[in-house]
Amino acid sequence: MTSSTLNSDSFEPRWGYVWLTAILLVSFAVGGFELFVRGGGLGPNYVDNRALWADSRHRLNKAGKEAIVLLGASRMQRAVDVDTMSDQFERPVFQLSLEGSSYLPLLENLAVDPRITGSVVVSIAPAFTFNRLLSQVDEGKQSSYLEYYSQQSYVHRLEQQLTLFLQGHIAFRARRARLSAVIPEVVATGTLPSRDHKTIFRNRVVHMNYDLMPVQQTEDGIVALYLENAEPYTSVEFDSVVNYIKTIVSLLRQKGVDVYFVRLPSAGAVRALEAELFPREQFWNVLEDNVDATFVHFADHPELEGYVSKDGSHIDTAHMVSFTEKLNDVLDRNRLRTASE
To answer: Is the pTM for the entire model greater than 0.85?
Structure first.
């Protein structure tokens, strides 16, 4: 005979406690993994993709005439410390350079956008301005980023803001800190994956640690890339390019935008090859003589020398702040002013 004191309800799980226990266990596991990968130096770290770039491009629209916009490829992105430039000029600075791409699509985009009324500083790297094989190097990368930016809905932008917030605050979202990367490495070697050689910040500044690169970048490596992907424009072809740039800059100047073309330093074998393929008098000087902009060439400013990394092509991250301070001084002497002026 079944006891009348038995009650089937007593065997019902207490779901509140079950869920609380599950949440606590998951939180401890996630938190522990977060501390584990942070301790190994694996994050947080942003991904320098089209979402991060588009975020900077959208923020530029609200900055008005105080904005300083940086255009170019990897030389500009690795050379200028955005915070240092912003502090010195007391103006917001937007890094819109894009590694391995031509600045021309974005320069045109800024020219036709009525909201852009500040100053534009363009890095003239010979391979991305004087090179008839530019399309082979660029592959339309910046145009695709502009298309992504222009097609973003309001909801998409909100989602993008959340993604960027998480990237900046949660280490295990970094590429090398994901479970799919960590577990195989720990099983195989007993250690975490090595830190990424490239650190990206929200303002799109890039810090390079050459010692962590799987394949070291050297002058010879950059020279080999040049020989494979660079060929000077003919005079007729370059005249067409100059006229195109002249037209774009004219549109910017009509809006009151100050435009600066800057030739950032290169060194060693890279510098020698650039001088051989793209002689200054045949390319840089022609551009300077025909375009209504301010031109700054590192060879005319000895204070800009001595900061290039061992690859001969980019400013060394260890010298980025010092180089930016020197570049700021040069730009200041060439009319780029603080907000109060």
So the answer is: yes
